[in-house]
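Q: Is it fine to ask for two folds in a single conversation?
A: Yes, each is treated on its own. Send the first.
Q: Here.
A: Result:
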Amino acid sequence: MVVMVIALAGSDESPENPPSADVRVTSCTVDATTRLPSAGLEIHNHSSKTSTYGVTVEFRAPNGTRLSEGAALSLTVASGQKVTTTAGGKDQVTQKVTCKVTKVNRIAG
């Protein structure tokens, strides 16, 4: 079992450049063997400072029911830099899922 704890104090919430605009889902799959969902993510730091990102993702059934959730943490993403990462779900699923980013924390520093 893998447990990920993300504790980020404060958040770089810029109204003209919100952290949520820096993250996009690039893939959304369920592993055929483990039945665990995962979301490929691209983070593009549009802020002027090197930042740490904490991203929460929901994995939903076709009817919108949340089946699992996962998180990703990317440290020291430079201004203008793009990074790719994966958020893995913690619950096994037996159907196709859609992935939705539900929270993005961007901490400058």
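Q: Second one now.
A: Result:
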Amino acid sequence: MDGATEFVSFTVGNVSLSGFVTPDELARIESGEVVDVLLRGVIAVHGDVGEDVPLGDVACTFIGGELSPFAPPRGG
């Protein structure tokens, strides 16, 4: 998992998501900065169904320590 050793878990609506990030990615998420990460080995579980759904690796953006529903525009 290329150094992704830190477990993260969060809930979006009625869906729980869990996966792994690198220690550097976790530090950047916890510091509140805008950060794009690749969550590795993501498993989703819908609260009403309770069945694990493996999603693989999922690209996400965190803003202020929270999962963002959008990715802000980047200069470049």
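Q: Anything structural to flag on that second result?
A: Two points. The mean pLDDT is 89. The CA atoms of residues 43 and 54 lie 4 Å apart.
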